[in-house]
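TEACHING EXERCISE
Course module: macromolecular assemblies
Task: Read the component lines below, then compare them to the predicted structure of the full complex.
Student: A.B.
Group: 4
Components provided:
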Amino acid sequence: MKFMDEYRDEKLAHKLIAEIKRTVTRPWVLMEVCGGQTHSIVKYGIDRLLPKEVELVHGPGCPVCVTALETIDKAHAIAQRPNVIFCSFGDMLRVPGSEADLLVLKSRGADIRIVYSPIDCLKIARENPHKQVVFFAIGFETTAPANAMAVWQAKKQGISNFSILVSHVLVPPAISAILQSPDNRVQGFLGPGHVCTVVGYREYEPLATQFRVPIVITGFEPLDLLEGTLMAVRQLEEGRAEVENQYPRVVQRDGNRVAQQIVESVFEVCDRNWRGVGSIPQSGYALRPDFAAYDAERLFDVGAIATQESGVCISGLVLRGAKKPHHCSAFGKACTPEHPLGATMVSAEGACAAYYAYGRHLQPQDFAAKGQPS
Amino acid sequence: MCLAIPGKVVAIETDANGVKMAKANFGGVVKKVCLEYTPDVEVGDYVLVHVGFALSRVDEEEAQRTFQLLEELNQLDELIEADPALPQENPP
Ligand code: SF4
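Instructor-supplied answer key:
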């Protein structure tokens, strides 16, 4: 496919790797922020192709993974109401709550539907006027415009049986939290290309300056990730700490202003609890009071929910880049994608799930060979 | 989750609710996408699509520039390989 296949060219990839090798003189730790990038890196083995000086650690950028267990349980309580049609992106279906997952609830008779786009829920709401249609609105800044438009259009079109359960998260406060944590090892970032397609990268400039870290806004294909790595390594070697854009074919400094306007009119910034990490101030979106009528949390009183996370899981450390999945004693044993114990195993984009999917629980010697503790 | 892929706009229309939509071709699969966030897009353009919404036009010139830069790296590499006086790569 155009704009995809050519970014997987093996020969060019090796040229970039050679250039990274020529550039690097000492060890550096880089973090890719987005779960889609983590998936790509592990799938193509990019971290293993890099010289041993360059270590990639995986960031908190999987919205499915960081959705609080309490929110998942709320979603499940709402989905089981008799007059509710509960709609979700496919990747939330297998995420276990305290008791079950959405697929299990569906098999028990709950009306749960997978939608490709939140806007599809409006059609379902129009066709089912006597039902309440609830959409599980998760995601980063990338997904916020779509979720905001669904609510905006519902209001404009007078659709009153539609609401969303909001669990939106924002990237810059998470980067800031990682850099402020006492065990931080991250020296540079591959910034989230698709998040920045929407919000641009002005917001990242004060982070680069304040924490003296290079941030290279990077795409998702192998050549993008390698070029982003090269740009970040060059900055580190030269002692620069700037925001650079590896992904100018889709990202502009100001992002998409039209999308930002709709997002800002529907959502406001709030504190958000990230699974595995804890509460991060000003790191999420909630519906503005003008749109309270579309807030599923207000419409459905599900009462207090008590949740319990696994004691062995170190996903909080994995999400901050302090540990890798294979450092966890449960990885690939007690914890697998079929029976996830923690945040980073629940979605294909979580670091633990990506390591598992590409067989990294089978070959620990490869990590030893790179000089990483296993 | 933040997966967004490029598709080629093959038709533009306005739906019954006044929403600007397009048909976009993703390597043979044609899907409807919302164009409200990229109102200036024309038929033949490539757009980056996430959960049914075009978030940005893909800039072909910028894409070309990336490849030019990579090609230059290429030449640099061959120059170095051809010159035994310069330090050699460690085998991967
Ligand atoms: S392997 Fe499972 S238990 Fe271990 S850190 Fe990852 S999600 Fe948590």
